[in-house]
Amino acid sequence: MRTYLVVIDESPESQIALRFAARRAVKTGGSVEILALIERPEFVQWGGVMATMEQETQQRAQGLVAAAAGTLLEESGLKPALTVREGDGPAIVREMIAGNPDIAALVLGAAASGAPGPLVSHFSGTDAGTLPVPVMIIPGSLDRDAIDRLS
Questions:
Q1: What are the chain's domains?
Q2: Cα Rg of the chain, angstroms
Q3: What's residue 100's pLDDT?
Q4: pLDDT tens for each residue of 39-63
Q5: Residue 102: which residues within 8 A CB-CB, separation 6 or more?
Q6: Cys staple from 17: which of 35, 103, 138, 147, with CB 3.0 to 4.6 Å?
């Protein structure tokens, strides 16, 4: 089954990318996998503070993917696979693609203004053309009608 891997965060462009991926999955009989990345926190001298910070970050990421899954299910009827991982974003994306032969595309949202996010920059710059799947970069300036028309 064709799976669209979408990396989400709290940005509006990631929600646009998710909608695009969901619409493509519905039209192609595929599925969606939602990935939330957690950056490793900087070392804090006091272990209890560090543990609390890590727990709060994990809970926020879990809440983010749960909310995205609920929106996806409500709007498209798709029940996505959910993944929350901590570490280097590009390395995690590569591992996930290598570990799941059903992933047909990586879908990323690009900010409507300003610099693109780190994954967009990485996979359209440093690692452009090296993934075994297409990278779909969805402009953050698209509205719902435009996404529906293009997907």
A1: 3-150 (3.40.50.620)
A2: 16
A3: 96
A4: 765 555 655 655 665 666 666 767 7
A5: 1, 2, 3, 31
A6: 138
Global pTM exceeds 0.85: no
- Cβ pair 11, 115 in contact under 8 A: no
Q: What is the distance between the alpha carbons of residues 68 and 9, in angstroms, rounded to a whole number?
A: 10
The answer, yes or no, to whether residue 102 has pLDDT greater than 90, is yes
Residues in the chain: 151
Q: Do residues 9 and 37 make contact, with C-beta atoms less than 8 angstroms apart?
A: yes
Q: CB of 5 within 8 A of CB of 93?
A: yes
pLDDT tens sequence across 113-132: 888 889 999 999 888 889 99
| Whole-angstrom distance, CA of residue 150 vs CA of residue 24 | 9
Closest CA to 138 of 9, 30, 16: 16
Q: What is the pLDDT of residue 17?
A: 93
Q: Which two tokens stand for residue 6?
A: 């979408």
Encoded tokens for 67 = 């909310």
